[in-house]
Amino acid sequence: MAKLIVIIAITGTQGSSVAKVFLQEAGWTIRGVTRDPSKPASKALAAQGIEMVVGDADDVESIKAAVHGASIVFGNTAFSDAFASPTAEDMAKLRPGQSVREWCYEKELQQGKNIADAVATVDTLDLFVWSSLSHARKWSGGKYSGVFHFDSKAHVVDYINSVHPKLASKMSIMQMGLFITNWKWGQAAVPWEKRPDGSMNLRIPGSGDAPIPLIVPTDAGYFVKALTQVSPGKILLAFGDRLTWSEYVKLWSKCTGVPATFEKGTVAEHDKLAPGGYGEEIGEMFAYAQDFGYDGGDPSVIHAQDLGVDVPATRIEDYIKGEDWSQLLG
């Protein structure tokens, strides 16, 4: 009998990747959870034989119904778009003295708790895979307390461990590495700068030299599949390669033929690239990852080779060679 995997937020980058991988696997039935099954992305997945159901992470009961009968659930949330570009409607939701970043943190944390509360009711569950990130405030000893889009996901794990111990015993965590495609979101996301002579410079906040796990985000499904092939209780860091920023820039220059240099910067410098706290938070994320490691040095984090399972992740050199860099270089 086929097992049922339920993919929350299936039309997102990670969810659609998980769906793509499990569509190729025999013995699986796939149910996708989305807020709007009428959207083209939802219809395209339904056309491939995926059962599409309505579910909203702001509504616990809708998620409960969506995950009923599942053997495996993949859960993930997304930090609100208000983080980078808040609207007047978003600003009106803030409490007195509350920043947009803090509001986004609270919203994502609550959504994660809602998902956990729902999945905890599934009596057929074998495995819950939660897409998370490291606890920046904790692992930096409080030095980097503003990486809210990391800590919101990490605090969901804390919630599950304290409130739902049975679910915790069936949970594995996937920590996605830094998306190598983030440069497409502009300089505040990845601070490349073109110099007058045509060369490029990448200036990243932080004083350390920890290797950064870089991943093509559409590879997420391969890592989720790997976690379904081993026992629960894993914290898996998902990446194609781990490179220092200096190593990455040298590799990028070699592959593109464009001269490039790397420099260490500061959070204060990065803050100037985008207003309203967005630049500051991304700067803190970069500095945290350089100074303490992207996973914070958490000794419980493992890599794909530790699973004893083949994970065909894209190597970063292959990504660079296959990418169209005209948007950056133009």
TrEMBL record:
Q: Which Gene3D superfamilies match?
A: NAD(P)-binding Rossmann-like Domain, UDP-galactose 4-epimerase, domain 1
> Which keywords belong to this entry?
NADP
Q: In what residue span(s) does the NmrA-like domain sit?
A: 2-299
The answer, when asked if Amino-acid biosynthesis is one of the entry's keywords, is: no
Q: Which GO terms describe its molecular function?
A: acid-amino acid ligase activity
What Pfam families does the annotation carry?
NmrA (PF05368)
Name any GO cellular component annotation. nucleus
In terms of InterPro entries, this protein maps to: NAD(P)-bd_dom_sf, NmrA-like, NmrA-like_oxidored
Which PANTHER family does the entry mention? NITROGEN METABOLITE REPRESSION PROTEIN NMRA FAMILY MEMBER, NMRA-LIKE DOMAIN-CONTAINING PROTEIN
| The family this protein is said to belong to | Belongs to the NmrA-type oxidoreductase family.
Protein name, entry field: NmrA-like domain-containing protein
Its ancestry begins with: Eukaryota, Fungi, Dikarya, Ascomycota, Pezizomycotina
